[in-house]
Structure formats: structure tokens, C-alpha cells
Design goal:
419 residues; mainly alpha; Growth Hormone, Chain: A; 20 helices; 0% strand
Length: 419
């Protein structure tokens, strides 16, 4: 553990640290619930606004890409003025803008509110991940990162099916109002932790040149390049497949909103239930062993969608796809937390930027490939992910668990020289 981490950890006792971790996980859950409740209701929104599914599908990257770009600013800003100020401002913006989305009268207005919400909400999750980097040493970060990524998966797991299942009863406007109100409640729940959050990080000062030098340092090593590169391409894969999974189930099995929700029920369940377990496994056995497995599972899930299966097995396909995500992106984030040094916000901001830009690009690219059918789109994505998996055996072989250094021998235990 570095001196900086010792200072951060000493600011909180263990129960406080764990309570803060769970509260941050709840914030992460709500942010991702809101992000993933939209994709499954694309067919319903297409009917409401009287426009094509492909056009409505643009509201997904309209949120994700601005979200990713904004994380760069939030991470740097948090390093300079403090994490609490930025995180609470972002959480407030998330709550207000999500509720205002319900006022949209056209698909253009809906896309505008989604864009603004993406900008406003993007300071919560990356700063929560940065806080974990301050509170826990690298060899112990698997479990707390598992909590946060498990919360992300839980947001996906419940946001996707509930979004599709609730809309027929409360309307799409009601869905946004309820989630925005939940964000406001969470703001109040997190508020008592403001002071202890302020004690967990040191502010960073410097010039604009220092800022760009920080990015150059993050991307200037082979480890940084391969990690951020995999975050980008892997997020393109998962967002592309998942964003259009509801449309896939509608076209292949003629499912309605409730049926799509049930079919997507398995997505996010592995991370929600086993995120901390996967994190502990990464700490114990090393990311080098788990990353290739996660990438292979992801490629297999896309290939299975090409072949097809009975509708009853749709949740199983979603589970396998989700497990591939849960065994890759949280592990990459663990590596990122060791790259930033005292610029934890900048390092994690770059990670989330890469992640969400990949999410946005994935939905766009897959949507364009859909012009040639689901078979070709899924085939291209499966082949790329398989290539990532095969390369990862060599590229990440050094990501093994660090061996504990044995304590030095005490003087009385040293052998007596007979010279």
C-alpha cells in the first residue's frame, strides 16, 4: 500500500469504508438502471413517436457518447477541486435531467434530453471507481470493484427487463419520473458521507501541459495501451450486441414488451450476484487467467445468437453475454486503478470515457450492420471478440497476482557467523 492509500484508508474505519462502498454501489446501480432501461423500449418508443426503430435507436448513443466524453472533464475537475463537489453536482444533474426527459414531445426532444443527461450524469460512476482506488490497495481492489461492477450489472439486470415491463402500465414518461426521483433520494442518502469522501483524496494542481502529460503517461506504456484498447473494443462488442438484443428477440420470436423484458432478465444477473466473487478470484488467481475466459464467453454468446435457440432459452443467452462482460471490464478497471498514481480521477475518467464511447460506437456500428441482417452483424462482432480473446493470452500474461514479500528475519533469528 502506498503512503497516499494509507492516508486515505486511515480517514475511515473499516465499517465506515464498507458502508461508503455500498452506498456508492447503490449510486452506480441507479445510474446504470437509467442507462439500460432505454434500449429494450426502443420498439415501444418507435410506435409512440411514429418513427423507425433505427431512428429511435440513435437515442442510445445520444446518451452514451456524451457521457463518455464528459468523464474526461469530470475526472480532471475532481482531481483539482475535490471528488465530493463534482460527484454531488453530477448526481443532482442526473436526477433533474432524468425527470425532465419525461417532457419530450418528439424523438428529437427525447434525444436532446438524453444527451444532456449523459453530460450531467457522467461524474458519479468514474469518481466512485476512483475512490475505491484511494481506499483499497491494488491487491485488495478486486472485491470492492466487484461490488461496483456488480451494481452496474444489477442496473443492467433490472433496468432492461423492468423498463420494458413497466412502460405498458405507467408509460415511458412515468418510467423517467420514477428513476429521477430515485436519484434525488440517493442524493440525500449519500450526503452524510460528504466529509469522509473529502478526506480520501489529495487534490492535484498543475498546468494544462501537466494534464496532457498525464494522459500521455497513461497511454505511453504497453500496459496502458493494451488495457485502454481492450476496454474500448470490448465495450463496442457488448453495447452493440446488447443494445439491439431486444429488437433481435422481437423480430426472431415476435415478443412484445413484457416478453422482451423476460428474455433480458438474465442479463446482469451474474455480475449482480457474483461480482465480488469474480473480483476475489481475480485478486487470488490473477487477471491473466480470467480475462481470456470472459472474452471467449462473449464471443460464444454472439455466435449462439446466430445459430438460434428456443425462446425459452433467451434468458440463458443473456446470462452468458453478461458473464462475459462481468469477467472482463471490472478486471480492466482494476488494472486502470494501478496506472494513475495520484491522478486517480484522470485515470478512471479516461477509463470510463473509453468505456462509454465504446458503448456509443457499438450501438451505432451494430445498427449500421443491421442493414445487412442480424446474421452478418453478429458474425462480425463474434469474430472480433474471438480475436481479442486469443490475443489476450499473450498480452495479459503478466497480470498475475503479486506475491507477498516475506518479512525480514529478526536479528536473533539470523545464523551466527563462524568465520
Amino acid at each position: 500500500m502506498t503512503g497516499l492509500q494509507r492516508t486515505a484508508s486511515s480517514a475511515l474505519d473499516e465499517p465506515q469504508r464498507e458502508r461508503l462502498l455500498r452506498t456508492l454501489a447503490l449510486a452506480t446501480f441507479i445510474i446504470f438502471f437509467q442507462a439500460y432501461m432505454v434500449a429494450p423500449i426502443i420498439p415501444a418508443l418507435s410506435k409512440v413517436f411514429g418513427t423507425s426503430i433505427e431512428t429511435v435507436g440513435l437515442i442510445v448513443p445520444a446518451y452514451l457518447i456524451p457521457y463518455g466524453i464528459s468523464t474526461l472533464a469530470y475526472g480532471v475537475l475532481a482531481d483539482r477541486i475535490g471528488i465530493p463537489r463534482v460527484m454531488f453536482a453530477s448526481l443532482a444533474a442526473f436526477s433533474v435531467l432524468t425527470m425532465l426527459t419525461a417532457t419530450a414531445q418528439s424523438i428529437e426532444q427525447l434525444a436532446m434530453w438524453r444527451l444532456l443527461t449523459g453530460i450531467g450524469a457522467s461524474g458519479v460512476v468514474p469518481l466512485a471507481l476512483a475512490l475505491v482506488g484511494r481506499l483499497y490497495p491494488y491487491e485488495q481492489r478486486g472485491r470492492p470493484l466487484g461490488w461496483l461492477f456488480g451494481a452496474m450489472a444489477g442496473g443492467m439486470a433490472f433496468g432492461s427487463p423492468l423498463g420494458a415491463m413497466i412502460v405498458p402500465f405507467v408509460g415511458w414518461q412515468g418510467l423517467f419520473l420514477v428513476v429521477g426521483a430515485a436519484g434525488a433520494v440517493l442524493f440525500l442518502v449519500l450526503l452524510p458521507y460528504r466529509a469522509v469522501m473529502a478526506n480520501t483524496a489529495l487534490r492535484v494542481t498543475g498546468t494544462l501541459r501537466d494534464l496532457f502529460n498525464g494522459y500521455r503517461e497513461l497511454l505511453g506504456t504497453p500496459r496502458g495501451q493494451r488495457t485502454y484498447g481492450y476496454v474500448l473494443v470490448n465495450s463496442i462488442f457488448h453495447s452493440g450486441v446488447f443494445t439491439w438484443l431486444g429488437v433481435y428477440f422481437e423480430r426472431r420470436y415476435s415478443l412484445g414488451s413484457v416478453g422482451i423484458g423476460l428474455a433480458l432478465l438474465g442479463y446482469g444477473v451474474p455480475g449482480f450476484l457474483f461480482g465480488p466473487v469474480i473480483g476475489r478470484a481475480a485478486d487470488r488467481w490473477g487477471r491473466a487467467r480470467l480475462l481470456p475466459i470472459g472474452l471467449l464467453l462473449s464471443a460464444f454468446s454472439a455466435a449462439a445468437l446466430i445459430v438460434g435457440f428456443p425462446a425459452l432459452l433467451a434468458p440463458v443467452a443473456a446470462i452468458v453475454l453478461s458473464l462475459g462482460y462481468d469477467m472482463t471490464q471490472p478486471l480492466f478497471a482494476g488494472i486502470v486503478t494501478s496506472l494513475g498514481g495520484k491522478r486517480a480521477g484522470q485515470a478512471m475518467g479516461l477509463n470510463v470515457f473509453t468505456l462509454f464511447v465504446g458503448f456509443g460506437l457499438g450501438s451505432l456500428i451494430f445498427g449500421e450492420l443491421l442493414r445487412f441482417g442480424f446474421g452478418l452483424a453478429l458474425g462480425v462482432f463474434a469474430v472480433v471478440e474471438l480475436g481479442l480473446a486469443l490475443l489476450s493470452f499473450a498480452l495479459f500474461r503478466s497480470e498475475a497476482p503479486s506475491r507477498a514479500v516475506p518479512p525480514p528475519k529478526t536479528p536473533h533469528a539470523q545464523p551466527i557467523s563462524r568465520s
